[in-house]
Amino acid sequence: MSATIALDRRKIDKALKLWGQLNKQEQVRELRKSGRALAVRLANVTAPFGLNQSARKQGEGAVSKDILEITKPLNQYWMGEAIRMKALDPASFKRRFTTKDGRVWLEEEDMILNSSTIKRFHQSMRNKSNGRTSSAGTYTRDIGRTGAANRGILLNTQQKKYIKETQKKVGIAKASWAECAQTLGGFASVTGVGKIQGWIVKLISKYGRGSVQEGKGYIKIGNNVPWIGNALSRSNLAKSLDIQRTALAKSVIAIVKFNSKKAGFA
Predict the structure, then answer these.
(1) DSSP character for 72?
(2) 112 with 83: CB under 8 angstroms?
(3) Could you tell me the pTM of the whole model?
(4) Angle, alpha carbons 3-174-152 (nearest 5°)
């Protein structure tokens, strides 16, 4: 899914009746300025919410939580035991990984993963509606895990590496809006929102999928990340657009007043 937002002069003509008093250069400048500010606003409300390091940490925390919920890290010895038991004596697998007090901590249904298969497994466990993972079942004291979701087991070093690599991708959906802002003038601060910071900017070259289309009397910005619909709610999109339209209207009024005063009419 892509999200495309247009700032169209016709949508402010009805309210202001002043747009036509701006010369062509002023119109282009105001539309580009508003398009850039809108891109910054949308980057701010695209998950993880915010533009600062706190937003980044929030996103990294969510990534770590998701992966930890669907995988069980093992050291070299227990990983070897799990592989051996699955291959040689699957019927005794559960007993081998049951503690003296009856707690089952590994099951035959657990999938053995490695650095080549963890990504595919992670993707298969993600919820299509929000991109988050489903928890790998629940637990009981004596019979092990219940519920349909699978869990993967892998070396603890491989789990840590995969979490770290995946955390580097936090902010990809924001980066496409940042790319739009860059095209329209840069990452400078927007009142009430702030500026697009370096951790987002660094993602543009590799992951940016933003688009800007400029036409007669309008600018259209788009975010073509496939999961943008999960990262940006329709309500936040609409609110950001309304705020920026209001800002554009105020700017047009200010320009007309300034030009009138300059010409000696006010």
Answers:
(1) E
(2) yes
(3) 0.82
(4) 100
